[in-house]
Amino acid sequence: MDLNLHLPTLLVTSVMINLLIGGMLWAIYHLRHRERCFLLWALACLTFVLGTAFAVANELPGAPGGLIFVAHLFLGASPLLVLAGIHALMGLPIAGKRRSSRLIHGALLLYLSGLAVSAGWDPVVARFLTALFSALIFSLAIYRLGSIGHRPRLPLRILQTLFGIHGTLMMTQVLVIAVSMSGSVQLDLQGLLKLILMNHLLLVSATAMALPLLAFTRSEQALVVLAERDGLTQLYNRRAFYREGELAFEKARRAGDLVTVLMIDLDHFKQINDRWGHATGDEVLKVVASLMRAELRDDDIVGRVGGEEFAAVLRNNNREAIEAITGRLLQRIVETGREVHGVPVHLSASIGGATLTRDHGSFKDVMASADKALYRAKHNGRNRAEFVPTSAAAKL
Ligand SMILES: Nc1nc2c(ncn2[C@@H]2O[C@H](COP(=O)(O)OP(=O)(O)OP(=O)(O)O)[C@@H](O)[C@H]2O)c(=O)[nH]1
């Protein structure tokens, strides 16, 4: 079988691509406050280039012995560095968690011993071992990527697919070499290995290009959280709450659904701060936030819109349901707020509620109605809920 692959062209192209991508990763490492994963991935490209260079040098006439061993040391280090970069990205130790770290160390020991014994007399055996070792590392990379709770999933899926194809290719190489060594089937070993090498080079390059995608979308997600979430309670901040509220308002109006806004303001919070300190005040805010998360539905929109002021948008609830929810919320705040982290803060809250009507031209109008109702709840004695347009009050 003549596969017509010009090996030197293939190798030079791959070396160039990996040098370019490695250089880009190294530059990103410096531009992104020395984020370690990029350095490890740049080193993975470099070790791949060095491994390829040593493997080529070994083919030259009069090459000194031991070159193939050095070549495979670098080629084996390359997938290891890719995996180490994924661990660094996830904030894990470089060798991963305890179990996978033990597996990697064991496999590395076997691989290095196998190389040391075989590489001197048969480069094909060295290829066999490197392919087997790489397939194992790619499987671990797929597993590790699967455990990342990362949104969007696309970069993860792309990388898992690339590692999957690459691992399968490496196992094909292992099988081809094993079958050819057993002598049971006549194979064009060099032709097949060339074909595998070409795919291997393509996959290395594609993986090196896809890795930054994962890191970038990950840090973008972190920025979105920073921009949209309140740092203390992790609820939506004021800006994000208004944005989500406006979307829910428009949707409810189009569909003719009900949507209710609640403004929840803690009572005499200043006294809690003054008497027990700001740190206790912060803990109280966190407790109230988690209470709201627990008491309201997942698709309700909950935010911290001011210092001790929270707000929620509840979808598709009628007045009775809303009154039941606010009554429960007030009750839970009183129960839980009797003592927060051992401090008898005796917390209560006031709630103002407004349901979307024809008079409301925008989400801000519903918020303004809820604010008026909240004012009434405060005025009427606190620890209660008031609603507009009717003034049904739920006193605990
Ligand atoms: N601990 C803490 N306190 C905050 C935070 N943001 C605002 N505050 C405090 O919340 C208090 C709000 O006080 P006021 O607006 O007078 O309201 P209040 O004491 O709750 O009184 P009423 O609302 O009328 O029942 C102020 O003392 C603010 O300093 C915060 O992030 N942490």
Report on the structure:
By secondary structure, this protein is of the alpha+beta class. It folds into two domains: 7-226; 238-395, Alpha-Beta Plaits (2-Layer Sandwich), CATH 3.30.70.270. It contains twelve helices and six strands. A six-stranded mixed β-sheet has the order 2-3-1-4-5-6, with helices on both faces. Helix 1 (7-31) runs antiparallel to helix 2, helix 4 packs antiparallel against helix 5 (123-146) and helix 6 packs antiparallel against helix 7 (189-228). The protein is elongated and about 95 Å long. The termini are far apart. The structure holds guanosine-5'-triphosphate. Guanosine-5'-triphosphate (GTP) binds at residues 232, 265-270, 273, 278, 281-282, 285, 307-308, 378, 382. Keywords: Membrane, Transmembrane, Transmembrane helix.
Question: Quick summary of this structure?
Answer:
This protein is 67% helix and 9% strand.
